[in-house]
Amino acid sequence: MSGNRKTxxxxxxxxxxxxxxxxxxxxxxxxxxxxxxxxLVRRYPRWAWWVGGLCVAVFxxxxxxxxxxGPFGFRWRALYGDPKxxxxxxxxxxxxxxxQGDIDWELLRNAMIEKCPIRFxxxxxxxxxTIVDSKFRENFTQxxxxxxxxxxxxxxxxxxxxxxxxxxxxxxxxxxDGDLPPVLDVENKPKDVSxxxxxxxxxxxxHIVEDRYHVKPIIYTYxxxxxxxxxxxxxxxxxxxxxHYYVDKVEYAGEWKFWQHTDAGRLPGIxxxxxxxxxxxxxxxxxxxxxxx
Length: 293
What we know:
single chain, alpha/beta, 8-stranded mixed β-barrel, 18% strand, globular
């Protein structure tokens, strides 16, 4: 009878406190887990944990370098290392666009690159058939007023015809005697266009602009693009402006006039980075290259 009373009391208690047993079991499991962690910690000395943590940190650093730094190591050194510029050239210049923002031309007038004054500035003018660089007119005017040899370039677009792009450039850019020849910046080829047709389109732009100014336009592109898509004798008649970064010398075996050797230059008067360029010749040769000479 007493046993039945205890059983009934237990049942009533279970009904009133349904989680009572669970809390005890949960507490037992938590204690067991805490004991397991404690045993694991006590199993290895403190120095072993430090060594393990250091190995994990080194592993993550290596992954970061391999994925993010290694493929762009030259650029990282250009941005954060000591500046190193090609030797043996005296005629230095820069190219600018709206990306350089508002330029302090008074400071830039006296800026030097490797103890050499800035002689020329190439300025982005147009892109495709709809875009005029927002800073072009201001930069183009100021460059001449502050005594720099100036030039203007058109950024090629695969979305518009060569003829339309040529006339858009001519409608928005007026070059005068003393300016550098017009420049075509071409860095992309449509995937659905053959190399022959692409070259024909580039020549169309060059011929239209050449007819206006009676000088050979300058072709700007990077080294591998030139070799892959513009490696034809017909383009050898045009002055070549090569983009080839973070190397001691140009690998291109042909003739070139300008070399854009870094996009990580710093100068007083310009906030942020700016492209540095070299002219492959004397100051007299540079003057001779300009329109009217």
